[in-house]
Amino acid sequence: MTRIDAKFASLKASGKKAFVTYIMAGDPDEATTLAVMQGLPGAGVDIIELGLPFTDPMADGPTIQLAGQRALEGGMTLDKTLALVRAFRTADQTTPIVLMGYYNPIYSRGVDLFLTQAKEAGIDGLIVVDLPPEEDDELCIPAQKAGLNFIRLATPTTDDKRLPKVLQNTSGFVYYVSITGITGAAAARPEDVAPEVARIKRSTDLPIIVGFGINTPDSAQSIAAIADGCVVGSAIVKEIGAGKPVAEVLAFVKSLADGAHRG
Amino acid sequence: MAEDGLNSFMTGPDEQGRFGMFGGRFVSETLMPLILDLEERYNFAKTDPSFWAEMEDLWKHYVGRPSPLYFAPRLTEHLGGAKVYMKRDELNHTGAHKINNVLGQIILARRMGKTRIIAETGAGQHGVATATVCAKFGLKCVVYMGAHDVERQAPNVFRMRLLGAEVIPVTSGRGTLKDAMNDALRDWVTNVRDTFYCIGTVAGPHPYPAMVRDFQSIIGKEVRWQLAEQEGEGRLPDTVVAAIGGGSNAMGLFFPFLDDASVNIIGVEAGGKGVDDRMQHCASLTGGRPGVLHGNRTYLLQDNDGQILEGFSISAGLDYPGIGPEHSWLHDIGRAQYVSITDKEALEAFQLCCRLEGIIPALEPSHALAHVMKIAPTLPKDHIIVMNMCGRGDKDIFTVAKHLGVQVAV
Q1: Topology of B17-60+98-211 in CATH?
Q2: What is the distance in angstroms between the Cα of A202 and the nearest Cα belonging to chain B?
Q3: Pathway involvement (chain A) (predicted)?
C-alpha cells in the first residue's frame, strides 16, 4: 500500500473528496518550492503533484510552460527535484507526492536508476504525460514493480473500447482530463464531466480525480462533487509566477481546498 | 540481401511503430486514439488503388513529377572523379520535395473527413506546400512557425499568407522548429475532432515516420528507373547522398535502395559551426544520443539531464534537434553512413553549384552537395553518385547575401 492508497482509504472513511495541487519544482527557485510544498498539507491539500521541468512540455499551456522555463533557467535538475522531495519528507511522512512530467528526463537518467532514486527520495507515484498504455513496458510496469503507483490519464477521446486498456496497468487513482486541450486553457464543465466520470466508474474501483480547467473555489467544488476529487495546477502556478509571497499562495490554495472539500 | 539475419531492411516499422528500438508512440492519451485511427486509415489507403491513382494524377499534373534526374557534367569535370547526378526535386511545384508528402496526407485527411489542417514549418517549405494543397482543396490551413524563423524566412511567410493560410509565430520555448511542433501538437490535442496534423518530416509518433517515408519514396523509385534509362538496364547508383534535418528527402531517396547492398547510403547532417562540445550544430546522430521527443524515440541533441538543446544551422530547414527514427536505426545497424557538413562548406557548395550548373540550390541540399564535393574526387570515374537536390535556393538568397557580406535591397 502506497501513501496514495492510504490517503484515499482515509478520505473515504471520512467521506471527503481529495484535493490535489500541482506546482513546478524549482519555480522560481528550490527554496520557494519547498516552502510552498511544506505549507500545502496545512492548507488542505491531500496529494501534491510535483512537476519535473522539461524543455518541451507538449501538453501544457503557457502558464506551466513558463514555470518550467523559469525552473530550468534557475538551474533545476532531476537530482535537485528529488532533493526537494527528500527535504519535504524529513518533516512529512504521510502526504503523497506524485512526480508529474515527461519521459525524456527519466529515460535519460535510466529507468531502473530513476525508480530506485525516486522511491528512496519519497515519491509515491508517477504521471508521465507522453507514455500511453502502448508504451507500458518503458516505465509503467517497472514502476509498479518498484512499488510506485503509475497514474494514467483518461481523456474525452478515450472511448469505451479503449478504456480497459487505459485502466489495465493504472494504480493509485485515475486522472480524468476534463477537456480536450492543454493545461490552463478552457474551463471544465461539470455537465460534460459528470457522465464521463460515471462511465469510467463502471469500469474501475480506483478513485477518479478530475483535472484541467479548474481554477476557482467554485469550480473546485462543483467538479469535486461529481468525482472523487479534483486537481488545480495552472491557477496556483500563476500565483507563484506572479511572485506572490508564499503565505498568499497558500491562502489561495486554502480557498480552493475548502471549495473542493465542500464538493 | 540484407545482413545480420534480417531478410530485408524495408519491412519496418513493426506493429509498435518501432524501427529496432527507435520510433514508437510517445504521445498523450488524448492524441492516442487519433493516431490509432490515422494508422488504420493509412493502412487502408496504402493498399487502395484509387488512393494511389489520385496521388499519381496530382503528382503528374499538379506537382510536375517525375522530376528530372540530371547528369551534372561541369560539376563532375570540376571534381574530377565520380559521375554526379542530381535528382531535381527542387523543380517540383512549390520548389522542394515537401509537396510529395503533403499531397498524400491531405488526400488522406479529405478521406477521413477532416476540414482543418495544421502544420509546423522551419524554413517554410513544408508550410508553403501545406498552404498550397489546402488552397487547392479549399481546406482551412494553420501553420505554426517559430518566431525566429518567421523573421529569417519572410518570403515564405508571405507566400503562405497569399495562399490563404494563417501563420502563427511561435514564441514558446525558444521560438524555433521544435517549439513550432510543440504548439502544433497543443493545437491538435485541443481540436481533436476536425483537425488533421500534417507533419512535414519522417518524425513524430507512428505512423507518421512510415507514412511520410512512403510518400517521399517516389524520389528513390524514380531515380531507379531514370538511372537505368540513362546508364543502362540494371545500373544502380553506387552512392546516394541527401541532406538531413528530420530526414524526409533523405528517407525518400534511400528507402528504395535499402536492400541493394551495392548502394552506399550517406546522410548529411547540418554541422553548423562544427560538431564539437559547443553544440552549435544540428547533427543529432553525430553529436546526440537516444531520447524521446515529439512522439518518438530517436537520436536527440540534449544535455545530461535529458533537456532538449537548440540546434544551430545556417539552414532553417535543418535546424531541428532530432532526426527521423528510421535514420537512427539505419545509423545503429550501419546500413547508412551519416556525416556532417559545416555552414561554411555548405555556402561554398552553394556558390559552386550556381556557377557550374546554373542551379541555385537551397541551403539544405547544399550540405549534401558539399559532401559530394568531398568524396567525388576520391572515387573512380565510373562511380555514380546521385544527390538529392531537394529544394531551390530562391528563399535563401538573403541569408547567403548576408553571409557573403553583400547588401541586397528588398
Answers
A1: Rossmann fold (3.40.50)
A2: 20
A3: Amino-acid biosynthesis; L-tryptophan biosynthesis; L-tryptophan from chorismate: step 5/5
